[in-house]
Design brief:
This protein has 228 residues and is mainly beta. The chain folds into 2 domains: 100 residues, Cadherins (Immunoglobulin-like, Sandwich), CATH 2.60.40.60; 93 residues, Cadherins (Immunoglobulin-like, Sandwich). It contains 1 helix and 18 strands. The strands form 7 sheets. A 4-stranded mixed beta sheet has the order 4-11-10-7. It is rod-shaped, with a radius of gyration of 37 Å. The termini are far apart. The relative contact order is 0.15. It is found in: Membrane. It is a single-pass membrane protein. Its main location: membrane. InterPro entries: Cadherin-like_dom, Cadherin-like_sf, Cadherin_CS, Protocadherin/Cadherin-CA. One of its GO terms (cellular component) is plasma membrane.
Length: 228
């Protein structure tokens, strides 16, 4: 306020104050941010449907409704094996039988989220899921029947006599194979670790001899297969 003094030509200045309130209307100008650049989890292969694998999380500094986040989807090879809860970010198993560590030992996926209840700005993060091997594959012999011929000295074979089996599980002890002679025979010895068949003493039998051998793994439960 400005007011002139009387009769002197002198000017006097007066001031006053008032409270001013400014309201800023929030606009959705900040995209959501995942709390980690990569989320990691693991789950046993063939886990039951609904088994929780991991939880993803994103935040948004805007005010509601702009800050309301929805988790949209998982993408990448193998993403169809899992479900993503749009509200909580919980990732669960959705396909038990096809969750196979021998096929997909590690799955590299992406998770997508958006604010404004899924209609606004978007964000993406990595998701890595490791499938833990279980003992679901028995050893398999290379052949159903092996034939070995004795030398004339009847104490050795003409070639090294190995039986060989392979286990397609991806980790020990599930894929560690051992061998066992099922048919009792005092003249033969089967190396448990290598599968080599040896003659313990001079062979005295003249007829053809057939014996059964077994390959078993060291997993739980122990799985096996047989050959002759």
């Amino acid at each position: 306020m400005l007011r002139s003094g009387q009769g002197t030509g002198e000017r006097k200045f007066y001031t006053s104050r008032a409270k001013l309130t400014v309201v800023l209307n929030d606009v959705n100008d900040n995209p959501p941010q995942f709390v980690q650049t990569e989320f990691k989890g693991n789950v046993p292969e063939h886990a039951n449907i609904g088994t929780t694998v991991l939880v993803v999380e994103a935040t948004d500094v805007d005010r509601e409704p702009g800050s309301k986040i929805q988790y949209l989807q998982l993408t990448g090879a193998g993403s169809e094996l899992f479900s993503l809860d749009s509200e909580t970010g919980v990732i669960t198993v959705s396909a038990s039988q096809t969750l196979d560590a021998e096929t997909f030992p590690i799955l590299s996926l992406e998770v997508h989220a958006a604010d404004e209840n899924g209609k606004g700005l978007k964000a993406t993060s990595k998701v890595t899921i490791t499938l833990l091997d279980i003992n679901d594959n028995p050893p398999h012999f290379e052949k159903d029947v092996y034939e070995f011929i004795l030398n004339t000295d009847r104490s050795t074979f003409t070639t090294q006599a190995f039986v060989k089996a392979f286990d397609s599980d991806i980790s020990p002890p599930n894929n560690e194979v051992r061998y066992q002679l099922l048919t009792p025979n005092e003249d033969l010895f089967l190396n448990e670790k290598t599968g080599e068949l040896l003659v313990k003493r001079m062979w005295e039998q003249d007829e053809l001899v057939s014996v059964k051998v077994r390959a078993f793994d060291e997993g739980v439960p122990r799985l096996s297969s047989d050959a002759e």
